Amino acid sequence: MDYRSTIRKPLLILLGIDSLAVFGLWAVNLSSNAFPGGVWSAQQESSLPALHLAAEGIMAGVTLVGVCGTWKGAGWGRGILLFGLGMFAYSAVNSLGWAVINDPGQGIPMLLTLVIIAGAAPSLIRHGRQTLEGDRQPNLNTVDSGGC
């Protein structure tokens, strides 16, 4: 199956939605006063929410940059996206542990994220291997002023 097949765009769209959902979830948590002592106040279940927020924000931001780069066909996009997928996989597994104990219904998005990653990662890795083998040369100088 060619990397630029019709499965690529839906996976990229789902990964973009997943990343935006992280920002949305944190916006809801922060606006609903989920941390009455503030994000720098220690919480028994999550340590310091500010650090958790920073980690998830970086994860979602890196993944969005990778999605945009891959969508545009930039050579750097796949590597950044794979890095973001690794971050998402860790976060999904770690958060699933919390959900199983506290609220199993909240585990559904984590499981869906893992399914999306399982669909996207092999294609990205396979295409990256082809590039390294010389089948395709990435254009690392691709700069596109158009939005993603």
Short description:
With 148 residues, the chain is mainly α.
Name the features.
mainly alpha, about 150 residues
Q: Characterize the main sheet.
A: none
- Low-pLDDT residue spans: 130-137
The number of helical segments is 4
Distance between the termini: 25 Å
Beta-strand content bin: under 5%
Structural class: mainly alpha
Notes on the protein architecture:
This protein has helices spanning 8-31, 49-72, 77-102, 107-132. Helix content is 68%, strand content 0%. It has a domain at 51-135. The longest helix is centred in the middle third of the chain and has 26 residues, at 77-102. The chain is mostly helical. Helix 1 runs antiparallel to helix 2 (49-72), helix 1 packs across helix 4 and helix 3 (77-102) runs antiparallel to helix 4. The chain has four helices and no strands. Mean pLDDT is 82; it is low at 130-137. The two termini are 25 Å apart.
Write the layout of secondary structure elements.
Layout: H1 8-31, H2 49-72, H3 77-102, H4 107-132
